[in-house]
Amino acid sequence: MADGGQDDRTGGGIVREEGDGPGAVAARLTGRAVVAQRRLTGVVTEVALDGGPVIVKEAGSASAARAEAAGLGWLADARAVRVPVVHGLDRRWLVTGCVPEGPPSAAAAVRFGRELAGLHTAGAPAFGAPPPDGDAEAYIGLAPMRNVPGSDWPRWYAEHRVLPYLRQAADHGTVLRDETGVVERVCERLADLTGPSEVPARLHGDLWSGNVLWGADGHVWLIDPAAHGGHRETDLAMLQLFGCPHLTEVLEGYQDATPLAAGWQRRVGLHQLFPLLVHAVLFGRSYAERALGTARRLLAEAGH
């Protein structure tokens, strides 16, 4: 894991923590003694146990912890990508395996592209289908996300991914009322913009570069999913939204394993509307402007 956290040790090498902190949770769920702990972010702590390190995350709520655990389990069941093992849940806490990190490499990126294609090919019962152990009420980052199954991707994507966050952004004043129409027009024309039909893919669902760990073992590991059934181009568009090391090689590996439908490059912005609007709800106006600009480009390119 990255350096820079706070290391907490006591005499004899054993951390004694009372109550409901990360160390106490890790000890309770694993049955192992805590040697040290290091805060990585405001909600994530690396806890060194006598049998090796684990990651303890304060998910914010019991439902968020359950959703993340169910997503990790569903991704693992595909036997395609690497994800940390889930050691257990404790109210709002989630304890998972720790991934020692190493440098990104082109070889790992190509392999990851192939593995991601395998994850998508594992499929889902429907667009919007939650993991088998997951609830309809899930999360993407800190934003609630409802998993409502549907069979028609354009309609489902508009109703359950784009428009709910557009409305929230408008309610918060992040998107002005007279600006919502451009995104709504994209939603009305989705059937003409989406390309060939696809079967539901098993998505990570929040595949930005921060959730892609380059392991010291030479493999890519995925964390923090918002897993659901969706269009496979959505995961790839999210991967491109904030940049990813060796992205060209990732896409090369993906295309070698399961080629994308013609014109997929033109549809990247369409699939980025959803995460951009989520970010607008969570982080403000700059993301709203990016979403609006993307919607205008999609309409202009389609001649609308």
What report would you give on this structure?
The chain is an alpha+beta fold. The protein contains ten helices and twelve strands. It has a six-stranded antiparallel beta sheet with strand order 1-2-3-4-6-5. It has a two-stranded antiparallel ribbon with strand order 7-8. It has a two-stranded antiparallel ribbon with strand order 9-12. α3 crosses α8 and α5 crosses α10. The longest helix is centred in the middle third of the chain and has 19 residues. It is globular. It starts with 5 loop residues before the first strand and ends with a helix.
Q: Report the C-alpha radius of gyration, rounded.
A: 20 Å
- Helix coverage percent of residues? 40-55%
Mean pLDDT across every amino acid position: 92
The secondary-structure class comes to: alpha+beta
Unreliable residue stretches: 1-18
Q: How are the strands ordered across the major sheet?
A: 1-2-3-4-6-5
What is the number of strand segments?
12
Query: Gap between N and C termini, in Å?
Result: 48 Å
Order of helices and strands: EHEEEHEEHEEHHHEEEEHHHH
Largest sheet: 6 strands, antiparallel
Large-scale geometry: globular
Tally of alpha and pi helices: 10
Portion in beta strands = 15-25%
